[in-house]
Structures are given as C-alpha cells and as structure tokens.
Fold:
Amino acid sequence: MKYTHDQNSSVNKTLLALLFIFIIVGCSKSPLDPLPSWNEGATKKAIVDFVHNATQEGNKGFIQPEDRIATFDNDGTMWSETPTVEIEFIKSQLKKKMTTNPGLMKQEPFKSLTKGDEAALLKLKISDILKIMATAMTGMSEDEFADQALTFYKTAVHPRYRVPYQNLTYKPMTELVTYLQKAGFQIYICSGGDVALMRAVTPMIYGIPPEHVIGAYFVDKAVEKGDRLVLMRTPKLATTNDMAEKPVNILQRIGRRPVFAAGNVRTGGDIDHLRYSGEGALPSLQLMINHDDADREAAYAEKNGASLAAAKKFNWFVVSIKNDWKQIFSDSSLETTKISQAAK
Amino acid sequence: MKYTHDQNSSVNKTLLALLFIFIIVGCSKSPLDPLPSWNEGATKKAIVDFVHNATQEGNKGFIQPEDRIATFDNDGTMWSETPTVEIEFIKSQLKKKMTTNPGLMKQEPFKSLTKGDEAALLKLKISDILKIMATAMTGMSEDEFADQALTFYKTAVHPRYRVPYQNLTYKPMTELVTYLQKAGFQIYICSGGDVALMRAVTPMIYGIPPEHVIGAYFVDKAVEKGDRLVLMRTPKLATTNDMAEKPVNILQRIGRRPVFAAGNVRTGGDIDHLRYSGEGALPSLQLMINHDDADREAAYAEKNGASLAAAKKFNWFVVSIKNDWKQIFSDSSLETTKISQAAK
Structure:
C-alpha cells in the first residue's frame, strides 16, 4: 500500500515536471514567425508592423477589411523572370506552329527568333513583337489556350534550374501573400503577363483565384460554333498592363486603390503601380524588389535607375534579395548547385 | 391552502397550455424562408433546389465553392429601368453643364435632349449617343466622377415614385443575392451601365463590393497633376458590356463561367450572358425576368421576342414579376399609390 502510494506520487511528480517544462517552453518561445524566409531587418519589420496596425481597430494604421487590397506584380516579383516565362511559352508555341507550318521560320520576325536568345528578341520592333505574340497566343479559343498553357507548365522546364517554372516562385513572397490573406487582405496579381497564361497556375502556386489576376489580354470575340458560344482569342491586344496602364486597370478591375503593392526593378514597369498605391488617403506600404543576388538568383539593374530613384522619392521599401531573403525558392538547393552549373 | 393550491394549479395549467402552443407553432412553422418576397411556384422551387444541391457535397448538383459564381444584370434585373437610371444621371450632368455653357443646348444632339423624353433619345444615332455620353460622363477624374455620382444618388428622385433611385431595387432580387452569398456564391453585377456609376451604390444597396461590378467603361488616362497621378476619364468607350460583350468581359474579369445568371427581357442584351452561363460543364441555373406587371411596376416586351424565345430554347426560368414576386420594392406602398398617381 505504501509502495503503491510512493509509485503514484513519483508518477505525479514526473507529470508535474513535464507540465512545467511545457509551460516554460510555451511561454519562452516567440510567436510563430509568419515570414520565416525573410531575414530580420527594416523591411520585414515594416511589413509586420503594417499588417499588425492594419488589423487592430482603433490603431492609427487600421484599415477597414473592405479596403485591405494588395497588388503584386508577377515576373521578377512573385517568380523568377530570367528568362521571362511568357517568352519561353511563346517560343514553345511557335515551335509547335513550325512543325505544321515549316515556312514560318524562314520569315521575319520569326527568323530572328530561331536564333533563340532573349536579347535579340528584346531588340525587335514593337510591331514585330506584337506579330510574334499574336501568332503564338491568339487564333484559338480561350478553352484551347488554357489547355495549351497547362501543358506548357506540366512539360516545360527552366533552362538553367531544370525544374518546372512553377517551382521557381519566390518563397518569401508566397509567405507574404499567405500572411496578408490571413490578415484579411484580398491579394491581386497585376502583371504585364497574359492574364490567361497566369490564371492557369495562380490558384495552385499562390492560392490566388482567377478573378484576382489582372494582366495583359487580347480581345476575345464570341462566335457561334455548333450551337454554342465560343470565345476566340483575336490578335487585337487590349492592354499591355504595364507602366501607367497598371493603375488604370487596377481601378477598372478593383474599383479602388491597393494599400499594399509590390513590384520589381528592371524596366520601370511598376513605378506607376506603386505610386497609385502610395498616393491614396489610407495607410499603405510599397515594396520594390531589387535583384542583387548573382550568387543565389540573379543580379540585374535598370538602365536609367528610375525604379530605385522612385523608391527613394516616394518612400518605398527596397527589398534586397541578397540581404532580405533568407531563402529564395521552396527547394533551397536550387540556390546553390544549379546556378554554378549554369555558370559553367 | 386549498385555494392557493387551486390557484397554482390553474397557473400551471395555463403555462402548460402556452408551452404546448409554442411547441405546436414552432413545429408546424416551416424553416425560415430565404426568399419571402417570392411566391411559391416552379421558379422559386428551382432556385431553392439549385442552391440546396450546389451546397451539399456528394450531391449530383454539388458545385465546388470556388466555382460558385453568379452574375446579375442591373437595369431591369436588380432595379427599375423605367426610366433608365443612367439616362437620368446623364440628363442631370448635362443640365449642370448647360448652366456653365448655355450654348450647348442649342447644338445637336443636345437640342433633342432638351425635349426630355427617353423615346426621342433612343432614336438618336449611335455616334450622337456616344457624344452625349462622353460630354456628360468624361473629362473629369475618376474621383470627381465618383463624387458626382454620389451627389446624384443623394439628390435625384425617380420621376414617378418620387423616391431616390436606390429605393427602387427589387426586393426579391436583393433577397436572392443575400441567399446566394450565404451559400458561398460570389455575386457579380454584369451590366451595360457605367461601372463607376454603379459602384457608387452597389456596396450599400446590394452588398456587392466594387471589385464585383462589371460594366461599360470609358478608358482612363493616368496624368501627372501636382506631383500626383490622377486617372482622367477620356471619351474613348472601352466596352458597352452589352450583348456578346457580356461573356467576353465576364471571362476577362472572373476567369470562368458563372453557374448562376440573371437578366431581363427588353433589348436581348442578356441572351449571350445567360447562354454563357448555361453552356458550361457544371450544373447551372438562369433566370430571365419578364416585366409583365403594369399594375405594380411596368409591363414592356421586346420587339422581336428574342429573350423569351432564347429562354424557351435554352431552358431558362422566366420570372414573371406579376406571378413570381409577392412584393417588388422594400416599401410596398410604392407598388400601389404612386403608380396610380403617375397614371393620372
């Protein structure tokens, strides 16, 4: 009887000790970091403070739930743009077209394309670029185009990393999207990429539904086909959704300004996008991502430095990939091995 | 003691009787009707069955939450269109313009306008209509336009009912919007009305946020004003969002087909809208509202009868305002007194 009692007592003491350990561990541990792929620093602190304030009623930085609108550029902001995914898609579309129409590659501007490098492509005239885009991306129904886009994402691999393009989303940015969504923000993609090409993967890779994707698009025409209405992609480009077209399309689509906006340095394409976000009456935050990490991802600047100059002038936070991002891709091994292979 | 006991006993009996009444009333009463302004009938039953099936996993009619998209026309579907609210807005805008520019009313097509009747206006050439619309609705910033729209809604009254236009929403339809929203549907307005003019009131009158309004719009231009970007409304009409433009714009905006769509008989403007909804792979329901109630609201048909013919061909439910709607407006007194006054 005494032995049993002692045994119970020692079991109780062990349980009590375990309970204390749980309590101590529980209390000393900091709250779960919502942005684990971001290094501590001024930018991360600004984001966390902004979200905290936006969601605390009575706080000076409080933002009504219906006004919590955030817009993110896609290429170079949400995923890698070296090379641009859409250009790779266009190349793959033209390759398919050339098998059925071999004469195509002998004509300009397609002839230049076969040389293959993106630099040559970027030197083409606007009218030639539009001709290439229209040939690769229009003439089919929207349903057919969506299928072609899905096939591309399933089969194509990045020339350097040798993985599908959707594996090259930036982990710090997908964390940020999730963090903002949990704080009641509606997240939109606002990119110069083709809207249908992006929509084929945005729900899966970002958790962003099709209705929250704003992009360039070709005008559709509803035509009668076998007693059904079919939406056909025509070669008329409605908008490039770049530069000053970004705020115009944001207002047309969302009906108000974003209080959070992110873009990146390369062409100046996000300057008006971020200005539109920052010039509203509500508290807001803007991020301009700078690709300055040649070792882990890519380092490229803008010819005239306009995006960084605007960031300084308008008080946007410049995100240094090198310093602010602890990890870039979900598979961090891509950041080390594959680039050095590519450098060979 | 006996008296007291008898008294208690009779109090207890009364309480017991009341309890029984409560139970009987409680049990016999059907569950709360989500559509109290709709009369019982085939259309109401079809709506309730559709929503029930769409939300029951495992049911043949189940629709994944992300696919629960519904689109509603506005004029004549969500609120009264006799007269068309936008035309009244245009008249009020031109009246203001004429005070600052009295010469305007002496020029065509504005001269015709001063005669005032909508029938004369509807006979104008498309180019004249566009000229009138552009004069009334463009040249200002989007912020200024939003202010002008709000002022109109606050001050203008319907010529017949003598109440603000936002009091003339159809109660059965706002009930339907709320019912669908509670069942996880995203509700969009898809109308030929100007998107900014509608957005000024849709959150308040329908509980539909600005980003869920699809409409006609004039192209905006971002211009630099005092170190700020201002979006100015230019006279270039981007889309009328009518007829075949409805499915085109729905896909552009939402990225997929609606499984529920509602429009009304008058011009045939919703035929392609409803076809697009009905021709998808998912279970769907379409409503075509027929204004057949001269006593309580209005009775008007379509010249060629195309909308009703399409409803028959494509199995859409025709909503008879006379038979299907128990009550039309929130203030049901409008349905009796005011029309007879107007008839004088």
